[in-house]
């Protein structure tokens, strides 16, 4: 490409990011025939101006779908998240080591785990930490790092370094979207990289996502999971989305709602008693 002015180059970078979703320093440096340092200065200025979002090694387009905060997401699909969390908690066996992601649905799972015994829980999420911090029968490990205020989760090299020294029986991941073509979606490439690392560290991989997230692609950052992972969703899930995921080798579980225990009917001939314990 012929040399162009700095403003024209920045305008072109924004256009490319909006088209492809992601722009890397190396690719842009080659495309515009300028140094990597020049591109980094361009990206820094565009980020400061609110035109791009920085990532490791480049920048990505600002999404048309603003990322909701954890507080906003907690009240969404409450009953579905509760059903998903209960099913997930029922899979946990005594003595197991668990890895919990950040997010509202995984936070609901942490609440269900409060009655678990003799398990170890490592987590990147503040919600799980708050739920389990006072449970004496659960050993809790915090995978610290850089805190993302919106997701209330830790990301970055410190979190990844801690993961390199650990393995788990089960990992439970949250997500902003699920696609049979791409995997699971997040707002930040640091999140998707971390989820891929987490998935490689556990024998059993579960993604907890209520039905509205199936087929949803709100952002441009994706995590590809190892074969054989399990999606746990609710019974309102679209059948076409479920079958598309199963065709890709994903095990899909539809968590049933918890039904109230039936009250035994009294025989009309049974004597009436006061139901008072002796």
Automatic annotation (TrEMBL):
Annotated stretches, region: Disordered: 259-278
Keywords: Transcription, Transcription regulation
GO molecular function annotation: DNA-binding transcription factor activity
Protein name according to UniProt: DeoR/GlpR transcriptional regulator
Keyword Transcription: yes
Domain HTH deoR-type intervals: 6-61
Source organism superkingdom: Bacteria
InterPro entries from the UniProt entry: Carb_Metab_HTH_regulators, DeoR-like_C, DeoR_HTH, NagB/RpiA_transferase-like, WH_DNA-bd_sf
